[in-house]
């Protein structure tokens, strides 16, 4: 069993992935260095443990407290602003590539509900009570311990634990948004319909939609066919005529 201190990683300003699938880190920083506004070409899950910081996402401030987590999709600009220089800044960071998300999605759409929810609603910050965050924290510590270890079956176990963590987050946010009395979040297909209607004169290929919504053209085509019985192109053609 590792001590938590041994699970930490020294912070570097690197904003790209070494791995093609996922990376996870536990950071505990002091002194605090300025981090400029930046974007990624992967999903960043940010789990906040301690600090006095506001995270700006798309130019909007998101004050965060212990137990919160953010999901920053590819291409979304963000940066932290430290409100004092004396409070340690502790967080877990999980990076997931879009290719890995697409492979998970083909295994089950349940893996990507949260990604779709964030990209269509632009709601990036999620708060948790102590029980919910303790469940998350124990899974994350176990994952980092496995990553830093050398036990037999490490690669397979790490993959299982990453997938379990992602599914846990999806289930948690899905259930919060689908309890009695809660309004259903805007679905991906509805967001795409709104986008098509607002941009009828522009290129609306699956490649364009893929870049706009940060999801694969396979998923866009699948969810559109399921909801409307037609492709986005057919929907655009009908909208042009009406």
CATH class of the largest domain: Mainly Beta
Q: How would you write the strand order of the largest sheet? A: 1-7-2-5-8
Proportion of helical residues:
40-55%
Oligomer: single chain
Question: How many separate structural domains?
Answer: 2
What would you report as the Rg, rounded to the nearest angstrom?
Answer: 19 Å
Please describe the biggest sheet, giving its number of strands, its sense, and whether it closes into a barrel.
5 strands, antiparallel
Fraction of residues in β-strands: 15-25%
Q: Would you summarize the structure shown here?
A:
By secondary structure, this protein is α+β, with helices and mostly antiparallel strands.
Report on this structure:
The protein is of the alpha+beta class and 242 residues long. It has two domains: 4-177, Jelly Rolls; 188-241, Arc Repressor Mutant, subunit A (Orthogonal Bundle). It is 43% helix and 19% strand. It has eight helices and eight strands; from the N terminus they run βββββββααβαααααα. The strands form two sheets. Strands 1-7-2-5-8 form a five-stranded antiparallel sheet. Strands 4-3-6 form a three-stranded antiparallel sheet, with no helix packed on it. α3 (130-148) packs antiparallel against α4 (154-177) and α5 crosses α8. The longest helix is centred in the C-terminal third of the chain and has 24 residues, at 154-177. It is globular. Mean pLDDT is 84; it is low at 180-185.
């Amino acid at each position: 069993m590792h001590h938590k201190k041994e699970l930490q990683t020294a912070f570097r300003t690197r904003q790209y992935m070494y791995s093609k699938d996922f990376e996870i880190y536990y950071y505990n920083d002091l002194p605090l260095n300025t981090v400029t506004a930046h974007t990624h070409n992967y999903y960043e899950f940010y789990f906040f443990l301690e600090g006095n910081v506001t995270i700006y996402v798309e130019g909007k401030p998101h004050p965060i407290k212990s137990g919160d987590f953010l999901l920053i999709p590819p291409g979304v600009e963000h940066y932290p602003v430290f409100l004092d220089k004396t409070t340690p800044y502790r967080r877990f960071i999980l990076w997931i590539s879009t290719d890995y998300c697409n492979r998970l999605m083909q295994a089950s759409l349940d893996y990507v509900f949260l990604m779709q929810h964030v990209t269509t609603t632009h709601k990036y910050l999620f708060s948790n009570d102590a029980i919910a965050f303790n469940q998350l924290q124990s899974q994350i510590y176990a994952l980092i311990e496995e990553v830093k270890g050398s036990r037999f079956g490490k690669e397979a176990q790490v993959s299982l634990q990453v997938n379990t963590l992602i599914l846990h987050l999806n289930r948690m946010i899905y259930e919060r948004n689908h309890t009695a009395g809660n309004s259903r979040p805007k679905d991906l297909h509805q967001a795409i319909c709104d986008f098509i209607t607002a941009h009828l004169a522009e290129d609306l290929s699956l490649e364009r939609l893929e870049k706009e919504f940060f999801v694969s053209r396979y998923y866009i085509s699948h969810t559109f066919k399921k909801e409307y019985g037609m492709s986005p192109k057919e929907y655009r053609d009908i909208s042009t005529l009406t």
